[in-house]
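Hi L., both proteins are below.
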Amino acid sequence: MRILHCADIHLDSRMSANFDKEEAAVRRQEILGTFLDMIEEAAKAHTDHILIAGDLTDSVKVTATVRNTVLGALRDHPEMKFWYVPGNHDTGEDFLGVTEDLPDNLHVFGNDWETCSLDADGRIRLSAAAMDGTPRVGEGLSLLLNPECFNIVMLHGQAAGYHARSKAETISLSAFRGRGVDYLALGHIHSHQEGELDGRGIFCYPGCLEGRGFDECGEHGFVTLEIDEDTLRMKRHFIPFAGRCLWEIPVDVSGCADSDRMAKRIREEMDRQKAENIIHEGDLIRALLVGKIPADAEKNLLFLRRSMEKEFFHFEVEDRTGIEMDYESFRYDTSLRGEFVRLVEQAEIPEEEKAEILRCGIRELSGEVDEL
């Protein structure tokens, strides 16, 4: 038996915090396209079941295009069964809940535990429950599983031990230990993570299918399970599948006194990353400027962004540089700048604050203005 486990698709996500209106619109369509491509890929691989562990959509409101396209894709593949547990983003009156004519091959789990057989003999079973606004800390204690079966449990929430935004999103892994769980299929964390649950089972977050912001960098995709129906032994694989990846790439610009030199450093680092097949032209890149530069360095972030923006789908620059300051060189400087540096040096404030004050002050005195 072949099973695909995905989660956190977030269809119709606005993504206005990271991208401009045009980029966000393109990414929304691309995320929908990747989800549809995943279904086609699953069909080609003769997948039997697709588990969607929450947050298929980003909110309760979705466009008619998304609703019709997704439901149409499910109907086009009656040979596969889709199992869906709503998450914290798509609970309540979501597009599945208000659609009367759901595909026959789609099963949506409610707030109470429900166990379904995935094979004809009932030896491979799936148990799931939706988010209902109550903590999941002891949820596993009320779940009864047959230890003779291969037991998959699906939930959407944050495993205890991670930082959860609310108690209602917390799942206690300890509540599922020693209860006959073979595979705890989770959603909510947007990076692929897995680990041992107990001596028998594991827990797994497949991560989101496509990164939507720079807090979701790296490869994204889904997890496939291959379960031998005779021995009930499982093999699993993480499959990178995102159409585009997001990367934050540190670029050391230490000693660079002007934007032209910094731009050359950025290009050298991007070319190196491309040569090593880490990043690609279609990716979304944030270059992080690091290192120490002279306090009076000319640095134009708009110029730096535009110097590379045609190379990638999206390119931006974030300044994390420090100030390289030789106070001794200003010891006898009689200019206004020298007096300013000496006053800041003597001030009883943290060094990082001194560095920022010096950077802004010297730039102002030099007639330079930082551009975003």
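That was the first. Here is the second:
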Amino acid sequence: MASTPTSARTGVIRLSELSPSVSGADMVAALVPPPQFDGATFETYRADPAYPSQQETKETLQAFSGGGAPAPRGGGLFRRAKKVPETKPGVYLDGGFGVGKTHLLASIYHAMPARRKYFGSFIEYTALVGALGYQKTVELFRGSDLLCIDEFELDDPGDTMVMTRLLGELVSGGTKIAATSNTPPNALGEGRFAAQDFLREIQAMSAHFETLRIDGTDYRQRAIDGHAVVLDEPGYEAAVTDAAARGLVSDDTFAALIAHLATVHPSRYIRLLDGLTMIGIRDVTQLLDQAAALRLVAFIDRAYDAQIPIRATGTSLDQVFGEEMLGGGYRKKYLRAISRLVALTHE
């Protein structure tokens, strides 16, 4: 039986008992920046002076968004103008987690004077294709001015083919593309599937983008301890009780939550979190199954977008992915999730 938590304002619910539904129209309506980036602008992006690439990228993106090109350097009145390099229809922000890529992506969205523009995570776009079908998705986005894609990742060959075709059709129609990732476009899929078999498609896709490398340290780790907060049982009970008196709280065992995520499409994870003010997880253990780990990453991405604090017992959440996983092809995904988990337990 389907249910959603939106009708309750306070109290405790079990996420493992919810079966949310999301329509294609709901998915399209959700293609806007997460609430934490509602007011993101280039002016509020704090470039770290220790990493000049952050300021340089910001200026390039301001020009891409229609804020004017950077002022030319040197040259006189009668000097021959330098040939302006061909402007590509897309920008691709490559860099480690926590350097402000999503903030910059949202800044592009807010700054570009576009009539039709969309902002979503990579998984939201691929889920939309699954819900509407490829051709209807193309028709939906055809003629749009801007498509922002956060956390661009290619986890399987099917996604490679779908996104390559989709971007190619949209770019040919005049749509601008802005994307972020922890992986350069020519390395997408590395270590996960036979990327060489899809090299032509990957290269065709990367040809649409000007790649901008952003260096820096994870801003989430600058002001907090490097480990997730772990509560004992009395501390956890007190946290849940206190939060439930003021808002809607979830309380699940880690095993039950992980098992339930396997029954819910990742595009619906955001519906699991509707109305929540805190996520409670008991008896966390280290994950051994890669599919389960990737589902947890997708869930944590949605929780982080919504800025929902997490309280947990058991194994520290920064230890939930084993060494074998951290050494594999999804390493950067897991490290990003760990960074976000640590931040949410300190909220």
